């Protein structure tokens, strides 16, 4: 990882808010960041129940990540990190894409979204099952956006759900060079190879720099 040479002893307590109420996403981000930045103090929007997130009106994952980070940072007067991510199936014109979390409707469950995707897959051939997860992460201060990064994890879609771990579309996604879905892999394995891990690796050096300068 590009931030391995940072001296952790130089990192002082630094508080960062994860702009999400999704407990699965929060858990993944905390687990990954705590591996590389042990002294960081991570909160989430669960700690700020009165805060109302903005509408995700962007046309890309990166747009939405920026919108969420900037809005929360200003409203909470804190440093904020946000994540916008989802599954992209090129043969379905990029669906579910930025609508991954609400693919089957605004109040859809993960199961509802997977069922809708599986119904769409029925019209595809095996050669059209290529897909990728994309994750974009943005970090902002109360004054401005500091940085945003994006990363992908490529693989294929399964036509039947497999596995009980993970969340979202994990039971349907198999990363290239793997035989198990994300929902069959142990969390420790997934957290080393996922799109979210790749994006967090890219932005970790920025977070560490902020923590050291704090």
Automatic annotation (TrEMBL):
Gene Ontology annotations for the cellular component aspect, listed alphabetically: cytosol
SUPFAM superfamilies hit by this protein: ITPase-like
GO molecular function: dITP diphosphatase activity; ITP diphosphatase activity; metal ion binding; nucleotide binding; ribonucleoside triphosphate phosphatase activity; XTP diphosphatase activity
GO biological process, one term: nucleotide metabolic process
The UniProt record lists the keyword Ribosomal protein: no
UniProt entry keywords in alphabetical sequence: Hydrolase, Magnesium, Metal-binding, Nucleotide metabolism, Nucleotide-binding
EC category name: hydrolase
The protein's Enzyme Commission number: 3.6.1.66
Subunit annotation: Homodimer.
Similarity comment: Belongs to the HAM1 NTPase family.
UniProt protein name: dITP/XTP pyrophosphatase
Native organism: marine sediment metagenome
């Amino acid at each position: 990882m590009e931030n391995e040479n940072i001296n952790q002893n130089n990192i002082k307590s630094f508080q960062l808010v994860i702009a999400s109420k999704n407990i699965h996403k929060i858990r993944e981000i905390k687990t990954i960041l705590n591996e590389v930045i042990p002294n960081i103090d991570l909160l989430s929007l669960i700690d700020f129940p009165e805060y109302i997130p903005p509408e995700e009106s962007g046309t890309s994952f990166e747009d939405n990540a920026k919108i969420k980070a900037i809005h929360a940072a200003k409203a909470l007067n804190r440093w904020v990190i946000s994540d916008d991510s989802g599954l992209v199936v090129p043969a379905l014109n990029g669906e579910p894409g930025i609508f991954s979390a609400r693919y089957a409707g605004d109040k859809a469950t993960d199961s509802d979204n997977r069922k809708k995707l599986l119904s769409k897959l029925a019209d595809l051939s095996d050669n059209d099952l290529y897909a990728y997860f994309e994750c974009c992460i943005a970090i902002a201060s109360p004054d401005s956006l500091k940085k945003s990064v994006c990363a992908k994890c490529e693989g294929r879609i399964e036509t039947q759900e497999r596995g009980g771990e993970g969340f979202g579309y994990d039971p349907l996604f198999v990363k290239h060079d793997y035989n198990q879905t994300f929902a069959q892999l142990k969390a420790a394995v997934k957290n080393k190879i996922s799109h979210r891990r790749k994006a967090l690796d890219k932005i970790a050096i920025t977070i560490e720099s902020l923590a050291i300068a704090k």
